[in-house]
Amino acid sequence: MQRKIRVLVGKPGLDGHDRGAKVVAAALRDAGMEVIYTGLHQTPEQIVDAAVQEDVDVVALSVLSGAHMTLFPEVQRLMAGRGIADKLLTGGGIIPPDDMQALLDRGIGRLFGPGSSTVDIVEYIRGWYAERYGADALPPLPPPAPRPEPMVTAAEHAHHRPRPAAKAPARKPAKPARRTAAAAKPARKPAKKAAKKAAKPARRPAKKAAKKSAKKTARKRARR
């Protein structure tokens, strides 16, 4: 007889982070299982009591506080005391590989660390259930839920519509480069000075020559 697999997801201890537990619970629910989530800050006694009351097949613990070597054995001991030791005790959290192996040697099921795939968790639980109750008792996986079409109003559609590219402003034609004062005006002053020098006779050399000739004539007269 096929029936849904019932799973209890518990958060024992003072660990206040349950995002991973909720992700796993949602994945198990999407795989056709009935999931009971106990909430945060549960004691091992409360988790085992809920497992007995709900008549679950699997008890899955999420431990991120580092107390996995204490909480898993305690829950296992309480399950044996309440007569449900034949149920699967599994879970996950921040657990080193050596501790996973040590808990596995104590009879606790497979444990999953950070980054584990929810597909692997679903396959492990379904495999354990088929091995215990037979393949005929294993319910088929439900088809994947279709994604709902997004509801977009006309205003939102218009808001997200790509806008036409804005036209670049017309550039003004570049102004011609102004001529520098030196290039625009010819150098008149040097030319004027050169013309004046060329026009004026050389006066100083003539005066000197006249003085020399006057001195010579004076000397000659003195000698006579």
Low-confidence stretches: none
Reported CATH architecture of the largest domain? 3-Layer(aba) Sandwich
Radius of gyration: 52 Å
CATH topology of the largest domain: Rossmann fold
Shape: rod-shaped
Structural class: alpha/beta
- Termini separation: 170 Å
What's the mean pLDDT score? 84
Beta-strand content: 5-15%
Q: Please describe the biggest sheet, giving its number of strands, its sense, and whether it closes into a barrel.
A: 5 strands, parallel
Total count of helical runs of at least 4 residues = 9
Number of strands: 5
Spatial ordering of strands, largest sheet = 2-1-3-4-5
User: What order do the helices and strands follow?
Assistant: EHEHEHEHEHHHHH
| Overall tally of structural domains | 2
CATH class descriptor name of the largest domain:
Alpha Beta
Task: Annotate the secondary structure layout.
Layout: E1 6-10, H1 19-30, E2 34-37, H2 44-54, E3 58-63, H3 68-81, E4 88-93, H4 97-105, E5 111-112, H5 118-133, H6 154-160, H7 181-184, H8 188-199, H9 203-223
Parallel strand pairs: 1-2, 1-3, 3-4, 4-5
List keywords for this structure.
9 helices, alpha/beta, 5-stranded parallel beta sheet, rod-shaped, Rossmann fold, 224 residues, 2 domains
